[in-house]
Write the structure tokens for this entry.
Amino acid sequence: MVQLIISGGWPSPLIKVSLYHPVSRPGLLILTNKRLFFYGPDVSKNLIFEEYSFAKISNLKEQKRLFSNQIVFMYDTEWKRIKHIQTNDVSGIVQQIKEQLSK
């Protein structure tokens, strides 16, 4: 399910995802014209808000998996994995992020 939120004239997809660190964490992925955000609980159920500047994202790709595809990218010097994405259009999300990276 993808919802578009209009803020400042810029549509931002809001997608339910899980961000993988040592453990998978549920939350929302928010794409703006300058950054990618993850909002959700940490392992202690405290809310976290992580910001990923497009300037530090590299090697962005979609990995095809058996049950659901995931988004993988290098952020600074650390690999990030976005898994359990609740949309059928993971390729579209990756394309939108790539468009922002090329600006």
Remarks:
- DSSP finds one helix and eight strands in the chain.
- Helices lie at 90-101.
- The CA atoms of residues 29 and 38 lie 5 Å apart.
